[in-house]
Design goal:
Helices cover 29% and strands 35% of the residues. A hairpin with a 2-residue loop joins strand 5 and strand 6. The longest helix is centred in the C-terminal third of the chain and has 13 residues. It is built from four helices and seven strands. Strands 1, 2, 5, 6 and 7 form a five-stranded mixed sheet that branches. A two-stranded antiparallel sheet has the order 3-4. The radius of gyration is 17 Å and the shape is globular. With 146 residues, it is α+β, with helices and mostly antiparallel strands. The chain has two domains: 90 residues, no CATH class; 48 residues. It starts with a helix and ends with a helix. This is Transposase IS204/IS1001/IS1096/IS1165 family protein. Pfam families: Zn_ribbon_ISL3.
């Protein structure tokens, strides 16, 4: 499991896992002591609060994967920054996303070759819990890319 988590993001550390209802739930945590503010770049180590976050990843052995973690909110040390707090960010997942970037790529590779309804049926069988509107939104975002 350690290697799987390192592939997602080198700043993540494996904590534990469980298997229920054909889904692997993997709990991870951040190893970073300091995090740069995404708005001004000032590095901070002052944790303001924590909040739970979960997101889906590519399947393991045909079983869905959900990753859980506590995201840390930091206080920005820069008095001139417009944002007093900011959330820790990771390479593997976009801000506010519920799926890893590599899962979204897999969903797109399936959805491009068939209708969104057929894609939902294929993806729900063993890849991820995803709806038709999500697939349509991902396809729309992909078309808007330059």
């Amino acid at each position: 499991m350690y290697e799987l988590i390192q592939v997602l993001d080198p700043c993540l550390e494996y904590e534990s896992h469980s298997f229920t209802n054909h889904t692997f739930t993997i709990t991870v945590s951040s190893t970073r002591l300091e995090v740069p503010c995404p708005y001004c770049g000032q590095v901070s180590s002052r944790v303001h609060s924590l909040y739970p976050r979960k997101f889906q990843d590519l399947p393991i052995q045909g079983h869905k994967v959900q990753i859980k973690m506590q995201i840390r909110k930091f206080l920005c040390k820069n008095p001139e920054c417009d944002h007093k707090t900011f959330s820790e960010r990771f390479e593997c997942i976009a801000e506010k996303a519920t799926r890893t970037k590599r899962l979204e790529e897999e969903v797109l590779s399936i959805a491009i070759h068939c209708s969104s309804i057929t894609a939902v049926k294929l993806i729900r069988k063993g890849t991820a819990n995803i709806g038709k509107s999500t697939i349509c939104n991902l396809l729309h975002k992909e078309r808007l890319k330059p």
